[in-house]
Write a structure and sequence with these properties.
The complex is a heterodimer of chains A (about 350) and B (about 190). With about 350 residues, chain A is α+β, with helices and mostly antiparallel strands. Chain A is built from nine helices and 15 strands. In chain A, the strands form two sheets. A six-stranded antiparallel β-barrel of chain A has the order 9-10-11-14-13-12. In chain A, strand 9 and strand 10 form a beta hairpin. About 5% of the residues of chain A have low confidence. Chain B folds into two domains: about 120 residues, Orthogonal Bundle (Rna Polymerase Sigma Factor, Chain: A), CATH 1.10.1740; about 50 residues. The N terminus of chain B is likely disordered. Classes of the chains: A alpha+beta (about 350), B mainly alpha (about 190).
């Protein structure tokens, strides 16, 4: 009860409800009794705190009243006439957008991984098979149509490469990667004659393919002027090739720059020679007209590094063709008629035996 | 549109004076002049109008505390001060909700707004504790305490309101209530 009285006294003192006499007496009590003084201070603090709390409530209440008078929606539209719509849309759909983005990333990377593009080590080796420029080709075909010389399909084909005759009775050598996945194959010489061919033998390990002309109109290719080198060629040997990076035969000249191919591949030579997609499968000849290899690819972003399969592997592949697959004898020419000719004459003679290969 | 808002901004000094004297009108003026700015800021930074209201009212409370404490010196425009406080409060809230925004990065800051906010937040926590303590107190204690301590009503008025026949009974009741409230409040 003493406490109750003290509290009452403190409160009436703080609220100024005491008379002057009473005030003086109370202040005297505070000075004399530290216990009372302590309690006075505590209660004073509590009252101030409670009062502040009350004030806060009143302020909040007053603000809420003011807020109710404001038309927030109208204000919002006035302040941001269009962006709120965008923001709302974004808020509604950002989760979906995130999911879509994640799905896109997963798709891209899984595609890269499964197609082998992400981890492909030999990505810098590009096989020189050419994708045919369809428009240009179909124009050429039309011209031929008018001349009445069109043989084979008008469709220019999906891919192209080069091939060359192995024997007069219609065997053709080219790269495996040129004819890989082919539906049907045609060859075309510089004069524009087109023959249907079939694959006789495929050697994916050495990137070699042997084709045979099966066209009823085909008779004979005549005597081939070049021979095949049975040993390895020497470093520094001058070499040349004829191929079909375009619709016309293109001559290219260079030298043998290394005895191994891409990444130390012993099957191939490295040749410094300008070649382009479409040159694949073309013959690589030395000065005397010996075929020393088959152009097969080049290294990306490196100058003068083309690769050619060594002729020894071609001969090896030919020997490995089973008898039953050969309905005609495959006899390689042994007499070279190019050795003493100037390059121009050599090319003229070789030209008829180098073909553009069209892959459908 | 911007001009319109600017032209309706009342004189800062008058407003401060009004706050100090507790004029209701100054609150209204300040609210109507500056709320649109904060509404725009919050909405264009991942918020909605309710959040804008909360943030703005908090900033006004911070301002009031400071003015009433008597240590408010207007070094910048009142508008800048309010914006700085709101910006800080909103960034804090965004952090808590781990929403991210980068548009709020560039704005001039008022130096002591951080300490002002800290003071406010401390006080706010205390008030929240008091609120729960009061709600646990139950009636009629809650109302008696609120009327007497929060709203400064006299014991006489409270006697009449609750129908106590004599003031001593009311005082005893109030005393008991206060003791219970203290227990609840300081226990928490």
């Amino acid at each position: 009860m003493k406490n109750l009285n003290l509290i009452n006294q403190i409160e009436s003192y703080l609220r100024g409800e005491m008379g002057p006499e009473e005030r003086k007496a109370f202040e005297q009590l505070l000075r004399e009794d530290p216990m009372v003084d302590q309690q006075f201070k505590e209660h004073q603090q509590l009252m101030a705190f409670m009062q502040a709390y009350g004030e806060r409530q009143r302020l909040q209440h007053a603000m809420n009243l003011i807020h109710e008078q404001i038309d927030v929606n109208a204000l919002k539209n006035e302040l941001m006439p269009f962006s709120t719509k965008v923001v709302k849309l974004w808020r509604t759909y950002r989760n979906y957008a995130a999911i879509a983005a994640a799905a896109a990333i997963v798709t891209v990377f899984s595609t890269l991984i499964f197609s082998g593009h992400l981890f492909e080590n030999n990505a810098s080796y590009s096989a020189l098979r050419r994708e045919i420029n369809k428009i240009k080709r179909s124009q050429n075909d039309l011209v031929k149509d008018i001349k009445g010389k069109a043989k084979g399909p008008l469709n220019p084909g999906e891919f192209g490469g080069t091939g060359f005759a192995l024997s007069s009775n219609g065997y053709i050598a080219t790269n495996y990667h040129v004819v890989k996945g082919a539906d049907s194959l045609y060859i075309q010489n510089a004069a524009g004659d087109t023959y249907k061919v079939k694959t006789v033998y495929l050697d994916p390990a050495h990137d070699i393919a042997v084709l045979q002309i099966v066209d009823p109109e085909f008779q004979s290719l005549g005597k081939r002027p070049y021979t095949f080198k049975k040993s390895n060629a020497d470093l520094g040997e001058d070499v040349f090739t004829i191929g079909f990076p375009r619709e016309e035969p293109v001559y290219g000249k260079g030298y043998l720059s290394s005895n191994t191919g891409f990444d130390g591949d012993t099957v191939a030579y490295q040749v410094s020679i300008p070649v382009n997609p479409g040159n694949s499968g073309g013959p690589l000849l030395d000065n005397r007209g010996n075929v020393i290899g088959i152009i097969s690819g080049k290294q990306d972003r490196t100058d003068g590094a083309a690769f050619a399969i060594k002729s020894t592997y071609l001969l090896q592949s030919i020997n490995e063709i089973p008898e039953k697959d050969l309905d005609r004898n495959l006899i390689l020419n042994k007499k070279n008629s190019l050795s003493n000719l100037a390059r121009k004459e050599q090319i003229k003679k070789i030209q008829d035996y180098v073909f553009m290969i069209r892959v459908y | 549109m911007k001009d319109k808002i600017n032209s309706s901004i009342p004189d800062d000094k008058e407003i401060i004076l009004g706050i100090r004297n507790g004029t209701k009108q100054s609150l209204e003026l300040i609210y109507q002049a500056h709320f649109p700015m904060i509404l725009q800021m919050v909405i264009s930074n991942n918020g909605d109008e309710e959040e804008a209201k909360d943030i703005f009212q908090e900033s006004i409370i911070v301002l009031y505390n400071k003015v009433k404490a008597g240590d408010f010196e207007l070094n910048s425009k009142l508008k800048t001060y309010i914006y700085a406080i709101c910006r800080r409060l909103w960034l804090k809230r965004l952090n808590q909700q781990s929403k991210f925004t980068n548009q709020l990065g560039i704005a001039e800051d008022v130096e002591d707004s951080a300490t002002d906010i800290e003071e406010y937040e401390h006080q706010h926590r205390q008030f929240q504790l008091m609120q729960t303590a009061l709600s646990q107190l139950g009636e009629p204690c809650k109302t008696i305490i609120e009327e007497f301590y929060l709203h400064n009503k006299s014991m006489q008025d409270i006697c009449e309101q609750f129908g106590y026949t004599n003031a001593d009974n009311a005082k005893t009741q109030k005393y008991k209530c206060l003791q219970r409230l203290k227990k609840l409040f300081f226990k928490a």
